Amino acid sequence: QVQLVESGGGLVQPGGSLRLSCAASTSIFSICAMNWYRQAPGKERELVASITSGGRTNYAESVKGRFTISRDNFKNTVALQMNNLKPEETAVYYCNANPQGTTLNYWGQGTQVTVSS
User: Quick one: pLDDT at residue 58?
Assistant: First the structure.
């Protein structure tokens, strides 16, 4: 079982920055691919950024160059640095863990990010 707890959401002005963090309570964190998703009101959940157990990253086209995903396998945490935020990126952001070689998916409770002036 993997428990994930996100933090760092809040209200930010357009063009501002936020750093989200996800803490995982599991001994298998180092073998998990970690992902950040977001879901805006009335829209489907979408993948924003991924980082494999080996540290390889992947980003949605819309966030490339502005968002950075990173992980700390000693602290069992994954972070999402978000810069130059846009109002349309207002959403609930979710942390997701996918243990390597499985189809299992674990989700955090989500953290609200609101981009507004």
Answer: 98
